[in-house]
Amino acid sequence: MCRRAVPTAASDIRLDNRPSSRSRAATHLLFVLALGGPALSSTTPAYAVCAIAQYGEPKYPAKFQHFDYVNPAAPRDGTLVLANPNRLTSFDKFNPFTLRGNPAPGLGLLFESLTTGSADEVASAYCLLADDIDVAKDGLSTTFHINPKARFSNGDPVTAADVKFSLDTLKSPQALPQFAVYFAQIARAVVLDRLTIRFDFKVATREMPLLVGGIPVFSRKWGMRADGTRIPFDQLAFEKPIASGEYLIDRYDNGRTIRYLRNPDYWGKSLPVRVGTHNFARIDYKLYADTVSQLEGFKAGEYDVLVEHTAQSWVRRDVGKRFDSGELIKREFMHHNGAGMQGFFINLRRPLFQDVRVRKALDLAFDFEWLNRQLFYNQYKRTDSYFVNTDLQATGTPGAGELAILDPLRGQLDPAVFGPMPRQPDTDPPGSLRANLLEARALLAQAGWTYRDGALRNASGQPFVFELLGDSGGDVSMEPVAAAYARNLQKLGITMRFRTADFALIQRRIDAFDFDMTTVRLPDVQVPGTEQLSRFGSRYADEPGSDNIAGVKSPAIDRILRLVLGAQTREQLLDATHALDRVLMHGYYVIPHWYSAVHRIAYRNTLAYPARVPLYFAADEWVLSVWWRQSPPPSP
């Protein structure tokens, strides 16, 4: 599943499975909870179905009643009040698909796609706007028939022409550049009749039917003036979207609050994929200026759910009389999501960082074990893979399948790639920070950096100085992490300056690649696909706004990426992804951080959730989609 990279907000924030700000639009709205790709095989007959799975068969049979992880009898009333779902403290538009400006939170409630996914499976797609899916036998096209009951919020029927318009708009220069990447292999969308559309592909991959099934659909009338002229898509601001989702924008104020109201005429309430979901009649967002006021607002009862990403806050700050009385409840929910990659991303576009020995030395100076003990209450594990917590993670030495991929690239790869996977530096005994720094000093010397005149200098006498760009959103927990890292680097003669800025400014600087090092999270994927091309493909390294944050340019990686995208079996996908992970980790493009296999959620006791917790879920989206309000609250 494609997800947009996002700058992290604080040191031990693990941004669960959701991107922030406009990245939420480029990903959550792109797939609207779709969690994988469909089946494609030369032996698969061409026939129309309403559910497809990337490998094997969908879990839920035809005519199923509802997903297992919902409560079909949940009350459908009440108001859910939420705070900032990301680091943005205000919004200035309702269009989540464009680069300029900050979108309002919750816009994913407005948009739907042809298919949606199941949180019980890593790779499935079930009919939503569509009521029929026909994957061509050769895998080069997929045809969808649109449910004739599907309606936009203005009452107009959803048509094939609207779907084509949505795709063409999102692929245009007026939309976020990520869409052009995600949809690059779609050759065309062909309207066959009013309710039937066929997508033709440039290549046959198992991912393509999911990609087109996940296109967010909106009406051609969105942005149309009364005189028939159209507002350019990238200039749409507070023009309310005309889409098919279950909620409407009710009211908003000063870019700080917004209310969504369930559409009483919502067309899809009886669909199996909608039964037991979206149980709140109203959803309010209140945006706080910083995390301190946000936490105090939760304790004061100003909103209902706090998804906690900071270990220190969970242990020491998320306490008080309302927690003691049972009015506020804290729970940790186990999930099976991949952890993604969060870390200090190094900008290879800077000459300072182009030597891999320098990047490895910077990694050796990072003391995770000390941070975990002193700051994080031992709640985290060290990230040692781009696909950690999944079977996509490379381990040990390359197996036969990996070697078949890597051997033809041997002349382009570091010989170390053919040995064991890199182990992240460890300072627990018998390891030590001193030993790691000595190894780092030796690597730096090999790269031409030696200590003299009070600093680490190159042959020209220039000191080793760089900036770590961080967020100033109010949670100061990044500062002790940066300070500890800077102290370790100073022992090598390296000066690291920690620079804070507003979240929106950080996003703009990252989009322009105007940074030395910054904290970013590449959200997890359960089935790697086109998002890997955007993150690591050479052609996107210099494209402003792309997800290739580090500026990776490697013909060998480009070749492996093509094999990931073209995998026709689960085994092929695993081999290609293991090879990709191995090469990326040996490139030391990131100083990895940490991860947790639980979601930490604090909530009011007037809320309830189904007895069965899904396998793969983002905490805030899970609350929005299947929780409900109970009244009166249960007795303590």
TrEMBL record:
Q: Carries keyword Ligase?
A: no
Query: Which UniProt keywords are present, listed alphabetically?
Result: Signal
Family matches, as InterPro entries: Peptide/Ni-bd (IPR030678), SBP_5 (IPR039424), SBP_5_dom (IPR000914)
This protein's record includes keyword Signal:
yes
Highest taxon above the source species: Bacteria
Q: Which residues form the Solute-binding protein family domain?
A: 128-522
A Pfam family recorded for this sequence: SBP_bac_5
Protein name in UniProt? Extracellular solute-binding protein
Organism classification: Bacteria, Pseudomonadati, Pseudomonadota, Betaproteobacteria, Burkholderiales
